[in-house]
Amino acid sequence: MNPGQQYDAPQHYEAAFLGEPGTVAQVRRWTRQALASAGVPDELVSDALTCVSELATNATRHTASGRPGGRYRVVVEVRPVASGQVHVEVVDQGGSGIPQVLLGGGESGRGLWICAALGIVQYTAVPSGGLRVSVDLPHPADGTHDGGQQR
After folding, report:
1. How far apart are alpha carbons 44 and 14 in whole angstroms?
2. What positions does the domain Histidine kinase/HSP90-like ATPase occupy (predicted)?
């Protein structure tokens, strides 16, 4: 965070996007602007952009958000300076199943593996029938995460 920026409450940013593949670039730009306004260091911005891109791509490819007229919501939260944490999440309109963190050469699942390597991945069902998938950054140095947790 910028040394001059001190705040006690999380800085919260939220926006909705159409569920089209082309909106992932818009999500990245929006996220970059939100993190810059909060004074987040470049390395953490880079990791957050990687994760939000993966989550938004998953929403457009694997859920009802990617159907005609579908939407998804992106939330970015910068925690108080003392914690130095960034939270990114995507809330989709639901799909079939729970996201999987997969290793190996498959075409699907590696994005969440990348997110899990960078931070703590969690997912929660939302009352509307969708799914909230989030990543808390940076990854704890002690390596105690399990690569995906359901709340």
Report:
1. 19
2. 20-118
| Cα-only R_g, the chain | 15
What's the rounded Cα separation, in Å, for the pair 88 and 50?
A: 10
Per-residue pLDDT tens over the stretch 99-142: 777 666 566 668 898 999 999 999 999 998 999 999 999 866 43
Q: Residue 142: which residues within 8 A CB-CB, separation 6 or more?
A: none
Phi/psi at 121 (5° precision): -95, 130
Strand order in the sheet with 11-18: 11-18, 71-78, 86-91, 131-137, 120-125, 149-150
Are 148 and 101 contacting, i.e. CB atoms less than 8 angstroms apart?
yes
> Closest Cα to residue 52, out of 32, 79, 66?
32
Cβ contact 87:134 at 8 Å? yes
**Distance, CA of 11 to CA of 98 (rounded, Å):** 29
- Cα separation of the two ends of the chain: 28
Confidence of residue 5 (pLDDT cuts 50, 70, 90): low
Distance CA 2, CA 85 (A): 13
